[in-house]
Amino acid sequence: MKKIKISPSILSADFSQLGNEIKRLEQAGADMIHVDVMDGHFVPNLTIGPPVIKSLKKYTSILFDVHLMISPVHKYIEDFSNAGADIITIHPEATENLESSINKIKELKKKAGVSLNPETKLELISDILNKIDLVLIMSVNPGFGGQKFMPEVLEKVKKLKQIKDKMGFNFDIEIDGGINFDNCKLAINAGANILVSGTTIFKSNDGDIKKNIELLKSN
């Protein structure tokens, strides 16, 4: 069975202590750092940009898993690559040419991911599954942390895993949105191998992030 990886979302971290929070996550066994980038246009919220990512990168050696919820996304890919993103995940709806944007990420020697909102059909990306490194299934509507998990997206995860196995593709299946100790097993059983979690990691068990990461991995 493929190793389950945890990508804590710093959207739930203490923003006044982000550098220290990232150090804590690495020491606690996080496999990567999930960075949600929102523009107030593609999604109804604003978060951080390339300068913050660049300044945070020096605090850790683990991968920066950067989810771009911005539109139009294509012209900003290089900025986030230069800032230190290791994985750059984009939405099909946020670019005029998805394949061109994926190629740009690859040309910059970064891993390319595509994210699907709860209502976005899997068929939208079926032609490019052989070109990407990661598919991020959103289990909430993107824009805000702390939302409730939408179990209906698990069917999409299962279908994606079936296609991956049948075709021999090598992309990771990541899930993000309301992931907690109760539903993480459902996500893993459906085929996800990377779990994004914010509130559960930072707030559960009196903020014992090491324990929370271990619980998500072992469920």
Q: Which helices and strands, and how do they pair?
A:
Layout: E1 5-8, H1 18-27, E2 32-38, H2 50-57, E3 63-69, H3 77-83, E4 87-90, H4 98-107, E5 111-116, E6 134-138, H5 154-167, E7 172-176, H6 184-190, E8 194-197, H7 199-203, H8 209-218
Parallel strand pairs: 1-8, 2-3, 3-4, 4-5, 5-6, 6-7, 7-8
Helix pairs in contact: 2-3, 5-6
Any overview of this molecule?
32% of the residues lie in helices and 19% in strands. It is an alpha/beta fold. The chain has one domain: Alpha-Beta Barrel (TIM Barrel). Strands 1-8-7-6-5-4-3-2 form an eight-stranded parallel sheet. α6 (184-190) links the parallel β7 and β8. The protein is globular and about 45 Å long. The two termini are 14 Å apart.
Observed structural traits:
8 strands, alpha/beta, single chain, 8 helices, 219 residues, TIM Barrel
**Average pLDDT number:** 95
* Largest sheet: number of strands, sense, barrel closure: 8 strands, parallel
Helix coverage percent: 25-40%
CATH homologous superfamily caption: Aldolase class I
Structural classification: alpha/beta
What is the third-level CATH name, the topology? Answer: TIM Barrel
- Model regions low in confidence, pLDDT < 50 over at least 5 residues: none
Radius of gyration, CA atoms, in whole angstroms: 16 Å
Main-sheet strand order equals 1-8-7-6-5-4-3-2
Overall geometry: globular
Provide the β-strand percentage band.
15-25%
Provide a concise account of the structure shown.
The chain is built from 8 helices and 8 strands; from the N terminus they run E-H-E-H-E-H-E-H-E-E-H-E-H-E-H-H. It has 219 residues and is of the alpha/beta class.
